[in-house]
């Protein structure tokens, strides 16, 4: 249903390389993965214009039935918005998103991948992936997932038409959303947030879990947060590879650029 300028993978119906998995094929894939010792299935796809919403909930159930020990990480925020539309809840805003996520979670969904974020900038959005959801909607989906105790990942796609300041802005918005999720968790765990000075000099409440301290002597966040909120588990910087896309005239990011971007992303999140 989308044709992003930067994408070299999408296929329209009837084009070479286009495919569609039946539920029986997905069951077979899940069984093979379980037999091979897999612990997680990562499932994303194109925005299929005709499959009904029930196809996706049925997919979650059959995977859980076939391989109950496997964690299911599935559906980017872009896909969740698409699923809300085909479920007839696209006009319901955040409530429609929450209801779709709730049904998918009940069917077996365990967490969300971070795809579809690209770069949180309207100029870049319109130049490279016009038609895809914008930053606010992507963040709304992940906020709804966190409120339903679903952990998620985050990504940034860099090295195309964005500027370096766009990357920093993107990471800052992710950091703000992570702080909100951690504050919710801290309130639930009765951990008093600390005063923190923000980049603009203003003070705000922040949850400091970097340790070491009496609660987290290993200086890291616990692997599983038992509170009422999910979090971003990882930030995944994705370098843009122009080959095969409409932007193939652009140079790919260098190794040094990759290292710098990864280092800054780790500092921010």
UniProtKB/TrEMBL annotation:
GO function term, MF aspect, one: 7,8-didemethyl-8-hydroxy-5-deazariboflavin synthase activity
Cofactor(s) needed by this chain: [4Fe-4S] cluster
Record protein name field: Radical SAM core domain-containing protein
Stored Gene3D superfamilies: Aldolase class I (3.20.20.70)
Domain Radical SAM core: 1-234
Organism name: marine sediment metagenome
Pfam families for this protein: Radical_SAM
The UniProt record lists the keyword Repeat: no
Keywords in alphabetical order: 4Fe-4S, Iron, Iron-sulfur, Metal-binding, S-adenosyl-L-methionine
InterPro entries named in the record: Aldolase_TIM, F420, rSAM, rSAM_sf
